[in-house]
């Protein structure tokens, strides 16, 4: 397990548009932190910076108190589940799951065991020989989650992982993600724009808008003591 700290992280894209403006945030060891905010507020950008897939314009990302600036993604103990799953279409489910382990030269035996255990955990044992195109949306989601957790990362980043599923399946998967978290306690940053998802999944919630973290707190705190009208409106507090 690991802590994550964002220290004054700023991101400007070409043209000087400032998407993130001195974002500071602490995520505790084993915590499930939900990052919510309206579409386009920079949630995906922030996750990509933590994963090392994009660079901050200014500021620092720390894992266990140490800066990871300049550390390539592969060497960060971070795995990410993307909104569109980004499965490798030409590979079987088994090879999708094994990919990150191969990349890190995990010995064959251990690799096979990890793939099997992960498939079992997510209930996709029967799908190992299929290609992604032969899977339903919910099955793809499970494979994407499996691919992220198979190498037992200390930090798990999830970018709207349930947004492509129908309402019923979202409820089921929410409960499963919660169960997985309780079993493994992987430090998790979970992005959503769905307020119900945030309230049911988060140990704490961080609300991002206008490039800044508006408020961080437990679901209870945000609901009962929102710091401003934006948070109240977004969380759905009675006003
Ligand atoms: P969210 O995930 O909260 O919907 P994003 O992080 O995807 O938001 O995007 C935040 C803002 O940054 C958007 O206005 C988006 O258009 C812009 N943006 C994202 N990636 C790039 C990029 N590579 N180049 C320029 N602008 C970008
Ligand atoms: Mg996004």
From TrEMBL:
Keywords: ATP-binding, Cell membrane, Membrane, Nucleotide-binding, Translocase, Transport. The keyword Cell membrane applies. GO terms for molecular function: ATP binding. Residues 4-235 form the ABC transporter domain. It comes from the Bacteria. This is ABC transporter ATP-binding protein.
């Amino acid at each position: 397990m690991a802590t994550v700290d964002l220290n004054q992280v700023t991101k400007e894209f070409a043209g000087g548009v400032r998407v993130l403006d001195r974002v500071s945030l602490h995520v505790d060891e084993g915590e499930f932190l939900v990052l919510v905010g309206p579409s386009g507020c920079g949630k995906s950008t922030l996750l990509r910076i933590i994963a090392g897939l994009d660079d901050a314009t200014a500021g620092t990302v720390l894992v266990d108190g140490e800066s990871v600036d300049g550390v390539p993604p592969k060497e960060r103990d971070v795995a990410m589940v993307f909104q569109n799953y980004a499965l490798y279409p030409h590979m079987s489910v088994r090879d999708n799951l094994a990919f990150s382990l191969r990349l890190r030269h995990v010995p064959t035996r251990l690799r096979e065991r990890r793939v099997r255990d992960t498939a079992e955990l997510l209930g996709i044992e029967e799908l190992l020989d299929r290609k992604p195109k032969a899977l339903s949306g919910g099955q793809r989601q499970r494979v994407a989650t499996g691919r992220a957790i198979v190498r037992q990362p200390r930090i798990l980043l999830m970018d709207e992982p349930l947004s492509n599923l129908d309402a019923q399946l979202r409820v089921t998967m929410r409960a499963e993600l919660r169960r997985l978290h309780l079993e493994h306690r992987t430090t998790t940053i979970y992005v959503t724009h769905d307020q119900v998802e945030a309230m049911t999944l988060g140990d704490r919630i961080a609300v991002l808008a206008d490039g800044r973290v508006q408020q961080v707190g437990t679901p209870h705190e945000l609901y009962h003591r929102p710091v401003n009208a934006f948070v109240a409106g977004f969380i759905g507090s009675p006003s």
